[in-house]
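Progress against Task 2.4 (sequence-to-structure conversion) is shown through the following example record, which the project officer requested during the mid-term review.
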Amino acid sequence: MEARAWGWTGTAVPKLGQGTWKMEGDDAGEAIAALEAGLDAGLCHVDTAEAYGNGRVEELVGRALLGRRDDVFLVSKVLPANASREGTLRSCEGSLRRLGTDRLDCYLLHWPGPHPLADTIAAFEELVQAGKIRSWGLSNFDVADLEAARALAGPRRIACNQVLYHLKARDMEAEVLPWCVRHAVAVVGYSPFGSGRFPSPISTGGKVLARVARAHRATPFQVALAFLLRNPHVFAIPKSVDISHVNANASAAALVLTEEEVAQLDAAFPIPTGRGLQTL
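Structure tokens generated for the chain above:
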């Protein structure tokens, strides 16, 4: 599995990881088995959050990581409602307890919220100093929000920005991605298959996906992942509890599209104009 630099930190992280949003609704045994299969396949970047199932998903992740914690780049998130200075410290302790670990590799603010961002950042820095998190970042932040955060934290502090990114939600490529590249901030795309909005095989874009997939003896989903990961600053975290799908996702990491194929997909799924950063 190709590893990429985690923003300014330089930490090598697998470009393709595992998301866990909505995993609380899945069979626990199947979810844990899928996470373990993903680790076996090299998907050792695991993303979760205290919001997912009110902590139940973090517990599932913790069970999947038993005996393997040192092999995993582990990310979790604090809910904005909890992100006061003291609240962030408490939330982090809760996440660590549920995950069965003594540290997170990155800790994110799930989306901009009601508490002063300066207080959240101060808590993040306190957690870094205490060794409870190795880096911190943001999620669902547009350029204005990112500028505000950088003004408070200073350069080389924001390690990543996690945003919605799939073929029908490419708006982050217009402004957010260039900003992050300029400031050495990793970009993590969540819901890379669109959470039910994957292109229909009879749509124009779906036909382009199918044609490219046939050329590579791949699936349209694998082609979609390869297209999203074409930029070396981008990571993706698809979620699945189907082991065959997990392994297919891992195989997509080795798929290299030609310039012509990238151009065809770019034309079939253009970057939206006149809209802000999309979220789910």
